[in-house]
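Q: Make up one entry.
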Amino acid sequence: MCFARDEDLVGIEDNAEKLKLWLLRDLEENNKKKKATVWGMGGVGKTTLVNHVYKIVKLDFDAAAWVTVSMNYQIDDLLKKIAREFGIPFDASNMEMTNLVLAIRSYLDGKRYILVLDDMWEMNVWISIMDVFPSNCISRFIFTTRKYEVASFATEKCVIKLEPLGDNNSWKLFCMLVFRNNGDYMCPLELKDLSIKFLQKCKGLPIAIQWIARLLSYKPPTTSVWKNVHDELVLQSTKNVIPGIDVILKVSLEDLTYELKNCFLHCTIFPEDYLLKRKRLIRHWITAGFIKEVENKTLEEVAEGCLNELVNRSLLEVVKKNEFGRVKHCRMHDIVYLVALDKAKEECFGNVYKGQETFSLDSTRRLSIQSTGTKTSHESFSNSVTKYQSSATHIRAVYAFTSHVDIDMLRPVIASSHLLSTLDLEGCQIKKLPNEVFDLFNLRFLGLRYTGIEILPEAVGRLQNLEVLDALFTPLSSFPKGVGKLKRLWFLYACTLHKGPNLLWYGGIKVPRTITNLTGLHNLETIEASLETLSDVASLTVLRAFLVCNVKREHASNLCKAVKNMRHLVHLTIATSDNENQILPLEALDLPGTLSKLVLQGCLEKERMPQIISSWLQLKSLTKLSLISSKLDEVSFSSLMELRDLCYLELVQAYDGKKLYFSESSFPRLQRLGIFSATQLNQVQIEEGALENLEELRFNNCPNLECIPHGIEYLTAIEELYLENVAEELVEKLIKQESGVNEFNEELAKISHIKLIFVMSTEKKYRKRIVPLRVKELTG
C-alpha cells in the first residue's frame, strides 16, 4: 500500500465516492458479504484509488488488512501475509497451513472486517482462499487487477473499470506536479506546446505523468532544457510493458546521477512487491560503494537523502513512515519493477534465480536467489556455475530471499567469486557458514539475521574489509576474538530474543577484549555488560547507536565513562539484569546532546528522578523515550513532564502508581503515548492544555482502569485510542450501546471526537471497534 500524495488523486473523485458507498452500505445487515473490484491497465491508478478509499472506510470495521498479491504468489505465503496484516499472532516457522487457516477464521469470526487484495493476476487466488474466511460476518473484499476475468468475481454492479485520464485531468495533474512551487500551478506560455507533447507521450496514465512531471520539476523551466528532454524521449526505443511507458521511465533513469541510478537498480535484487526497509537498503548501498562522502554528512545521511530522492521522483513508493516522519518501508511499483529489472539485466547489474533448470550467470555482477526449486534445479544451478566459472568471478553480491537455501548449492558461487563484497543470507535456515566464506577478502556485508548460525569461527578475522556484520536474532551467544581484526567494521549487530508472558526482551552477546580495535564502529548492539567490556567500549568514540544489557550496579562507573566518550550517540539502550530490584545507575550518566532515542529497562531511583531529568533537559534532540520496569509512581512521573521535546513516550511495566496526572502544558510535542502493564492504575487525569498534540493513546494490560481518562475531551488532535485488557467495567460502559440501549453514555461522549477507538481483550479473544458515528447519535 502506498501513501498517495494529494496531487496524485486527480480525476478519481467520482469513482472514490462510488466505491466508498458500496463498501459502507448495508453495514448493519448480518451475514452480508460484498466483493468490489477495480480493474484496468497497469499504471492507470487502481492502487491509488483503492488506497484513498481504504484509509477512509477502514475506520468503520473491526479489522482491516491490505495485502499485495503479485504475479508469482504462493498460497501459504499469501495466508501468512493476510494473518500478519490483520495482526493475528502466529509462528511463521512452525505453524502448519491448517492451523493458520483456523487462526485466521477464529480471529475474524463475528467481526466486521475488510480485506484488500491488491494486484491479483489470476482467478485461482480467490478460489484458493475464499473458504478461509468465516461466513457469519459482515465482510468487504476489494480486488485490484488488470484482468476482467478477475474483476468478474465482484458482487453485482460493484465493478469499476479505470480508464486513462482525459485531457483536462492529465493537464491538471501535470501542472500540479511540475509547477508545484508556483502558487497558482500555472504553466508558462512558452512551455505550453512542449507540455502538451509530453502529455501525448503519457497516454493519460497517471504513473507516466508522475514520472515525466517529476523529472521536469528537477529541470530549469526553459524551452531549451525541456526540448532536450523531449528529444531524448523521441530517440529512445520501446519494447516492454506498456508502449511508451518504458521510454518515459528510461529517460527518468538516465537523468539520475551515477550513484542514484545504482541505488535504484539495486532495488531490483529484491522480489517483486517486496517491502524495502530503509536501514537495510542504506547498509547495502554503503557497502556496495554506491554512496560517496559529502562534507559535514555521514554516509548514512547521504544514503537516506538518496532514498528520499527516489521517493520524490516517484520511482519508489512510501509504505510506512516511522514516528519521526522518516521513510521506514517502501516498495517499487510493479511496472517500475519490470522496466528496472530489464535495465538491470541489460547492464549486467543483476540477475534473478527462481529455481529454473536452465540458468546462466553470464557476466552478471549481482545474484538474487528468490526460489531454489527442485533437486534437479540445484544440480543445474551448480553445473551452470561450474560451466561459467570465469563469469562467476564477476559476481559482486549474492542475496537470498528464500529460507530453503542449500548452503552446498552456494559453495561453487562463493568459491569462484573472489570479488564478492555482499553476502546477505537473511532468513535462511542455515546453522553453519562454509569455510569458503572466510576466504572472501573483499567481503564488506555479511548478513546472517534470522538464520540458525550458532557459532562464528576465529576465521571471521580474515574478512579484513568487512563493514557490516549482522547476526541479529540468531542463536549466537558470543563473538570470537577474530572480530577485533575487522578494523573497517561500521555496524556490528547480534542479539537473542526472549519471550515472556507480557513482554519481549533482547539478550546480549559477549564481545572479546579485542573490541577496542574497532574504533570506527557506528552501531554496536546488543552486548552483554561486564566490567571489562564496558571499559573496552569506552574507546569506541564515534558510535551512533549503542545497546547494552545485563547492566548491574557495579558496572555504573565503567558505563558512565564509556557513554561520556560517545559524543555522537543518537540511540542508547541500557537494560539491567533480570533482577527486578536492580536499579539503573543513571545519576552520573552524561548523555550527549545528539541523543534522540533513549530506552531504559530497569528500576529508576525515585528520589533522584528530579536530578536525573534535570540533566536531560539540555537534550533538545531527545524525541523518543521508552521506560521498561522502571517502578515510577505519581511523584517520580511528574519529573518526566519537564521533557518538553518528547514526541514519543512508552511506559512498559514502568508505572506502579494508581493515578496518572498530566498537568497543564505538559508534553506539548508528544504525538504518541503508550501505557503498558500498569496493573495498579485506576485513574488518569488530563488537564486542559496538556498533551495538545497527542495523536495516539494506548492503554494495554491496565486491569484496574475503570474510566476513560478525565479530560480526554481536551485532546483535540487525538485520532486513535486503544484500550486492551482494561477493567471489565470500562469495557461494558463502552459497548453498552452495541446492545441497542439508546441512552446517553457519558464515557462515549468524552471520546466522540476520536476517529478510531478499539477495545480488546486477549483472554477473551475479543476485539471491537467503537464507531464514532454511533457515539454522536447517542450524545445528540
Remarks:
- Confidence is low (pLDDT under 50) at residues 237-243, 773-780.
- The first helix runs from residue 13 to 24.
